[in-house]
Amino acid sequence: METKYSVMFTGELCSDFNFEEVLSNFIALTKMEAEKAKKFLSSTKPVLIRKDVDRETAEKYQSGLTKAGLHIELLGSEAPPAASAAAVAPVPAYQTSSAPAQTAENPYAAPKADLKVEKKDEFGAWLDEPQKVPAFNGGYWIKSATALFLAEPWRWVGMFLVAMLITIPINFLPFVGGLINTFLGILFAGGIIMGAHELAEGGDLTFGYLFKGFKQNRNQLILVGVIYLAFFILVGFVAALILGGSLGLFGMAGGNPGGIAMAMQNNMGLFWIIVLVGLGILTLFMMAYWFTTPLVALADRNALASYKLSFRGCLKNWTAFLIYGLVFLAIIISLMVGYMLVSGVLSGLTSGNTMFIGMMLIMALIGLPITIIGALSVYTGFREIFYRSA
């Protein structure tokens, strides 16, 4: 039977850190409120952080918290010794874990009361239901995603380029290319989300994470794609029926351009109603789809439950999503303006193939990082909404 470990804060700080350094590091690591963090660190009693985790997970918690300056013990048979604070690197750029569980009296033996704490009450557990976050945190998701990208920029770029090299040729296959890429995109996204989580937890981002969605929770990720395709096939079928009815109205005009124009004008109100209803339905569906991949890949939810949870999470945080969208829109507009200005300068200096190549390079330098940051922002938003807060 695999040995399980409990992660315990002994109540002591590492000797190489002063209190203010540890407090600052701990707040950055956990996003805990300053007063709660200060009270937590000032307590001399041991605190249970996580229970019943495997050795690899326990060592990750030990490493990350030791980097912040906390003295951590791992409880359980064959538990490895605590890491030395002097030999570790700085805290990762982005962490959003949350509050610890209850206190214990003996750091060398897991107390009974604390070990009965349910998973949802533990440090770093995924929530069963989404939590509401402040509206302006939507902008923070982009900032956090940018920090994750800058932590490993070349590896992220390499992973996305490989994914593009695989999917772009497939897209040219008649009939099935788009269908195949729908599933490949979700599987790649699952791996990218898992890689982002590993990096945010202080681990190493390896290239293999790109393909991890093909191994871990693969079937449920594929089912996410099946539901996604089923929705758009249904929408396409309904749109075809409506379009067919419209063509019937135009046919009644006898093919006369004037008659067709009159028929369109008489039905303009109906046309806009259909467009607005369609946009509303699409928005509701995208709310249900938005967090499905991280819910399946990280929180081990099934596909159907993930659609429901994602919808509730987006609905509960619609103000944060509004800010998120506005910030992203402002960034894109600013980059487009910059691109046009640079293009204008290039057109005055070069011409022909040189100018075309230069503009394509600039577009890639702008577009690829923004695409990656956009993908990572799905994870950072998900983490804040579905991660236990203090």
Q: Identify the strand order in the major beta sheet.
A: 2-1-3
Question: What would you report as the Rg, rounded to the nearest angstrom?
Answer: 26 Å
Looking at the chains present, what oligomeric state does this protein adopt?
single chain
How much helix is in the residues?
A: 55-70%
Number of helices: 14
Structural class: mainly alpha
Shape: globular
Mean pLDDT: 80
Largest sheet: 3 strands, antiparallel
First and last CA, distance: 33 Å
**In terms of per-residue confidence, which ranges show pLDDT below 50 for 5 or more consecutive residues?**
78-123
What is the N-to-C succession of helices and strands? EHHEHEHHHHHHHHHHH
Per DSSP E runs of 2 or more residues, the count of β-strands stands at 3
Q: Please indicate the percent range of residues in DSSP E strands (runs of 2 or more).
A: 5-15%
Topology:
Blueprint: E1 5-13, H1 19-30, H2 34-42, E2 47-53, H3 55-68, E3 70-75, H4 112-115, H5 137-151, H6 153-171, H7 177-200, H8 218-251, H9 257-266, H10 268-289, H11 292-297, H12 303-316, H13 318-349, H14 352-386
Antiparallel strand pairs: 1-2, 1-3
Describe the structure.
With 390 residues, this protein is mainly alpha-helical. The chain has a domain at 5-101. The protein contains 14 helices and three strands. The chain has helices at 19-30, 34-42, 55-68, 112-115, 137-151, 153-171, 177-200, 218-251, 257-266, 268-289, 292-297, 303-316, 318-349, 352-386, and strands at residues 5-13, 47-53, 70-75. Strands 2-1-3 form a three-stranded antiparallel sheet. Helix 1 (19-30) packs across helix 3. It is globular and about 85 Å long. The relative contact order is 0.12. Residues 78-123 have low confidence and may be disordered.
